[in-house]
Amino acid sequence: MKKMTILLLGIILPVLSSCTDRNENTVTIVKKPDMVTTNDFYISNRSPLEGSPFIKLPVGAIKPEGWLKKELELQANGFHGHLEEISQYLIKENNAWLDPQGKGDHGWEEMPYWLKGYSNCAYVLGNKKMIKEAEGWLKPVIRNQREDGWFGPEHKKSGIATHLRGRADLWPNMVMLTCLQNYYEYAGNDSVLSLMSKYFKYLQTYPDDKFLVGFWPKMRAGDMLYSVYWLYNRTGEKWLLNFAEKVHRNTARWDTGIVSWHNVNIAQAFGEPATYWMQSKKTADLQAAERNWQTVRRIYGQVPGGLFGGDENCRPGFTGPRQAIETCGIVEDMFSDEVLIRITGDPVWADRCENDAFNTLPAAFTPDMKALRYLTAPNMPQSDSMSKCPGIDNCGPMFWMNPHIHRCCQHNSGQGWPYYAENLWYATPDNGLAVIFYSESNVTAKTGKGVNVKISEQTHYPFDEQIVLTITPDTTVKFPLYLRIPGWCTDAGLTINGEKITLHTQPGSYIKIVRTFHKDDRITLNLPMTLKITRYTQNKNSISVNYGPLTLSLKIDEKYIRNGGTEKWPAWEIFPGSAWNYGLVLDDQNPGKSFEIIKKEWPVSNMPFTQDNTPIVIKSRAKQIPEWKLNAQGLAEKLPLSPVQTNKPAETVTFIPMGAARLRISAFPVCAK
To answer: N or C: which end of the chain has fewer CB within 10 A?
Structure first.
């Protein structure tokens, strides 16, 4: 069984090392920031809510560069940035989201799902054309709020997945609340606060038996709960805490365990009890989120890539690496992890978010982000338009790279990279800053006693071990700076202005640097990456190969065949042009010796999540397993039990990061000697 790491919260490790120079550096290892104070410049949790170890910076404070900026640009230029040209749900004529009375068509989740990613992509990139387009949806929603407080559609037609009508269905508005919160964080539009307050007062009048009725609202009301606390932290209206208790009371009981095995419900709602913990302060609520995560991974997550084998719904007996996850599930799981690290301070949620982001999310799209598929699996050597059921829970063309279908994922997938970019850096309660997700970027924020500081981060992480931070304060300023040590890293190294700092670092903790910073101070963090083998004893004794935060996949020649779509927005099937059914030949005593790491130049395109451009390639020995084939539906047969007997000769094969492989084998059988 794959080992799971549970980090204890709130424990401050002893000072392991320190150095003193003219700047009086103090360097310690801690489990999370000191929370005895409250940040003076950025909105965090108000009393009586539990304090915020990490505080989200205003939208626009973080400017991604490098590969992450490229992903956002590809998204803006791809199908998601032009979805109004493709999706019937974004036709403005007679759209219920734009009508003053909420009448008309397409009044369900699709538009706000899309707007959540579209608007944040625009804000992060500073794309004025996209921002204007987003405001063309946001401003009417605000302007058209009814006198009694309701906003949004009062549609008579249901969504495809619900029988609810009109005001009975609170789910679409939950998504729109997130869009409005992001708009406020970007533009500071106080009308957002007014709308939310009036809306929640209106919902407060609902009796419990009329509140959160229906499957989707009840399952996912943790999103509304987080919105209530977001508003409370900005207005201080005490009645909101009573309303928050009402929301939690009527939400599906995720605090008791997994209440739905729908993959997106799990990814989106497993952390709801920890959100409520900010108010209840009950240890059981905090622990419930971790327990839920562990439960799902223990049964359905004995596979690489960070997610779990849900397809549409997790099913007993369908637990292998050919089971897939919705693209919706990927981005919602990342968002849950980002929320949970802010709530708890526990760096394990950052590790988990990175696992999703690096190893699964990029492969859900074509490299140019002009098409997506509904489902992505750790092992999928063919991605075509053929239905894969009953091996896959969903019937239909769920592996087809097509920008015109996959309704929910088509609209919702755009939140993944923008939200990731907005969570690279956080403010801390002690007027400091923390870098959580390493990526080339620039951040500008207030620190210390109110001094603006710009920090430039240069790195090719996760493909490189080194992160360089250049600090440029408006004037000399003392503040704490936190650097996350990933859970996979056992020997992090630190230098400050070229001086090596001796540290005994611990995986899954933070380096805390308290220093008087001057212009052009430079901090270099090294996170040595090594090859490691993960064994899945509950999944046919298969293995995966990991290099730092990256998991590797067999490189399979990918043959793209045009099938459908339009000239501007084509759809694709991807077929294997080389053998994929390999088992690994390992040195039992020292598995790491079985692999050769080859590092290449960084791609000029800034697109490392592609077969041709990945800067890391790994060679190893493997043997084909002829009995392991595609079935009649083009789905890989179940993994053979390791060790596997095969009379095929050993040959050298190539591995690339999972995220760069649209066709992939990432969980491998092991060949018998």
So the answer is: C
Residue type, 97: W
15 vs 292: CA distance, rounded Å:
33
- Determine contact, residues 154/101, Cβ cutoff 8 Å: yes
Give the phi and the psi of residue 198 in degrees, each rounded to 5: -65, -40
Omega cis (within 30) before 429: no
Q: What is the DSSP letter of 51?
A: P
Strands (E), 72-141: none
Report helix, strand or coil for 218. Answer: helix
Cis previous bond, 507, omega within 30: no
Nearest to 217 by CA among 246, 254, 174: 174
C-alpha angle 196-197-203 in degrees, rounded to nearest 5: 85
Number of neighbouring beta carbons within 10 Å of residue 504: 10
DSSP state of 636: B
Sheet holding 433-435, edge to edge: 26-30, 509-517, 477-485, 433-435, 425-427, 55-56
Tokens of 382: 């063919």
Tokens at 20, concatenated: 């003193």
**pLDDT tens per residue, range 155-211:** 766 555 677 878 999 999 999 999 999 999 999 999 999 999 999 999 999 999 999
> Above 90 in pLDDT, residue 20?
no
CA dihedral 366, 371, 372, 378 (to 10 degrees): -20
Number of H helices, E strands in the chain: 15, 24
The pLDDT mean for the chain works out to 94
Residue 5 banded pLDDT, cuts 50, 70, 90: very low
Helix axes 272-280, 239-250, angle to 10 degrees: 140
In whole angstroms, what is the distance from residue 229 CA to residue 236 CA? 10
Q: 329-347, pLDDT tens digit by residue?
A: 999 999 999 999 999 999 9
* Residue 543 near residue 555, CB atoms below 8 Å: no
How many of the other CB atoms lie within 10 Å of CB of 616? Answer: 21
Q: What's the DSSP call for residue 72?
A: H
Which residues lie below 8 Å from residue 147, measured CB to CB, with a gap of 6+?
none
Residue 78: Cβ within 10 Å count? 21
Separation of alpha carbons 388 and 395, rounded Å: 6
The SS3 of residue 347 is coil
Amino acid (one-letter) located at 181: Q
CB 54 within 8 A of CB 428: yes
Strand bridging mode 375-376 / 466-473: unpaired
DSSP 8-state secondary structure symbol assigned to residue 630: B
* Residue 428, pLDDT above cutoff 80: yes
For CA atoms 439, 485, 618, 324, the dihedral sign is negative
443 bridge partner residues: 62, 455
Cis peptide before 48 (omega within 30 of 0): yes
Q: What are the backbone dihedrals phi and psi of residue 363, each rounded to the nearest 5 degrees, phi first? A: -75, -10
Residues sharing a CB contact under 8 Å with residue 526, sequence separation 6 or more, in sequence order: 465, 466, 467, 492, 493, 494
Q: Quick check: helix, strand or coil at residue 322?
A: coil
The C-alpha atoms of residue 570 and residue 137 are separated, in whole angstroms, by 27
71-118 tens-digit pLDDT: 999 999 999 999 999 999 999 999 999 999 999 999 999 999 999 999
d(CA 351, CA 297): 15
Distance CA 493, CA 478 (A): 22
Q: What's at 636, amino acid-wise?
A: A
- Beta carbons of 304 and 658 less than 8 angstroms apart: yes
| Beta-ladder partners of 56 | 426
Residue bearing tokens 């308290």: 514
